[in-house]
Amino acid sequence: MNNNDTGETQKQDFIRTLVNDDLASQRFSGKVQTRFPPEPNGHLHLGHAKSICLNFGLASEYGGVCNLRFDDTNPTTESEEFADSIRKDIEWLLGHELPEEPVFASNYFDQLYEWAERLVELGKAYVDDQTAEMISTQRGSFTEPGVNSPFRERSPEENLVLFREMRAGKFSEGQCVLRAKISMDHDNMNMRDPVLYRIRHESHFRTANDWVIYPTYDWAHGQSDAIEGVTHSLCTLEFDSHRPLYDWFLEQLEIPHDKRPYQTEFARLNFTHTVLSKRLLRQLVEESVVQGWDDPRMPTLSGQRKRGYPPSAIRAFCDHIGIAKTNSTHEVELLESFVRSELNQTADRKMAVINPLKLTITNWPKGEIEYRDAINNPEDPSQGSRKVPFSGDLYIEHEDFMEDPPKKFFRLSPGREVRLRFGYFITCNEVIKDDDGNPVELLCTYDPETSGGKAPDGRKVKATLHWVEASNCVEGSAITYARLFRSEHPDTSSDVFQDLNHASLTKFSSVKFEPSIQDLLDGEVVQFERLGYFCKDDTEANLFHRTVGLRDEWANIQKRKGTN
Ligand code: ATP
Ligand code: MG
């Protein structure tokens, strides 16, 4: 990154270099226009976030336009619900409403059809009556040229009649297609007379029954770019071999050079321990492996939102990884570290006990409640402090007590003194157990002299525990999440579901919260001291999802890598 004259940070990558070159050469008369082209057949995931940040980011950096353009060319799998959810997710990620209303490839169906007729008239497209299977076997392979269709030499006049009949609904599905007439022995398989239109007798969520033929991605995409005035059409690397076709269509249609968009490919985003394939994500939902597209374990944007990821942290992550030409997989811990460092600055601290163990202070005046000052955010003193009730009836975490502690366990155990956060030193004197010998209550005494969290005689304690006062607490639940897949690189070429982590969700149902959590908004994230960051669920009362833990696992990974 460089700093420009205005002091703003200017990103640098090969795409921005191209844009700068185009601006310098006046290729598009100073214009920069991009688009984000999702198919409304699923929900957006973190991979899409990279593309959204790039496309919308470029437009805003260069004072241009970025359209959200739905690539709605397949009525079978697409729907308005998907389109609405995609828009919502993009606006959430960007942190503002879309600057322009979304556009749809279906808006251009008339123009696309007209252009297809032009290709037919030019002798550059033909109606093929063969089945899809036949066409596919005739395509050949990387080593074998394709075979010409017996219908390839139909005259433009005959093709025009047939194509109009296709459009008029005279044929059944699969009876014929419109193909470009390029070359069946082209080195690039995408150039071997690709299909432009297929017949689908299906209602489309926007054009209803106006059409029974639908354009393919290749035919719709570049032409939609041209219609909208896109200058830089950015897509992921797998479209590299489609670029010659993209250019071929625009060339045949004689789109003027200064209005001719061009395609540039960049690397997809991948993460460890998850999959970013719409097909597999859909399968996770359909097979009830997760509780929906917005399950906090899903790498979908709605899942991340439900989990409490701040969109600005995802944007900062995308900026950080930048844009490159080689595919790579990023450690999910890196994204988490962006989430953690942002929340560390912004999230209020609260206390909650997720696995409660009763603790009674036997020398505390019975029934007396004291209000302790608790700082809201040590990283941001302007957030002030709050009063937290304290008494002789408390809960602490089960994990913070051991009857027979090993050497390195410094928390509470019989005879040991520890500090309570925002409170006193306490000593455990007695353990009450159930019939199975499990501790159910600790009887402790406190030292009134340690109200400030220090002992006047200078004696030290080795641990500070969080706690919740029993009579004022709010009851609820919390869910912590672990990786959805056990392997760092789930193998999607085999049955990746074998690799599922069956312990990816742990629910705690008798969580005790300090009373102030009642003031939180749905979706708000707080830090429960010592437990991590948690997001308040927006439907179920007093349910919190753990956004991310407190430990910086990314730092550990870097250390490990550094020493390897
Ligand atoms: P499909 O496999 O259904 O085509 P897709 O993930 O490509 O799924 P689209 O809706 O076509 O979904 O994607 C919209 C845009 O997002 C495309 O431009 C695509 O290149 C980009 N995109 C999708 N996945 C990633 C990813 N992992 N990293 C970066 N960009 C992505
Ligand atoms: Mg796609």
Indicate the low-confidence ranges by residue numbers.
1-7
Beta-strand percent range: 15-25%
Ends apart, CA distance between termini: 29 Å
Largest sheet: 7 strands, mixed
The tally of helices reads 13
- Portion of residues within helices: 25-40%
Number of strands: 29
CATH superfamily label of the largest domain: HUPs
Give the count of structural domains. 3
The helix-and-strand class reads: alpha/beta
The second-level CATH architecture of the largest domain is 3-Layer(aba) Sandwich
List all distinct small molecules, including ions and cofactors, that are bound in this structure: adenosine-5'-triphosphate, magnesium ion
Radius of gyration: 31 Å
**CATH class of the largest domain, please?**
Alpha Beta
Shape: elongated
Strand order, biggest sheet? 14-27-28-29-25-26-15
Residue-averaged pLDDT: 95
CATH topology call of the largest domain: Rossmann fold
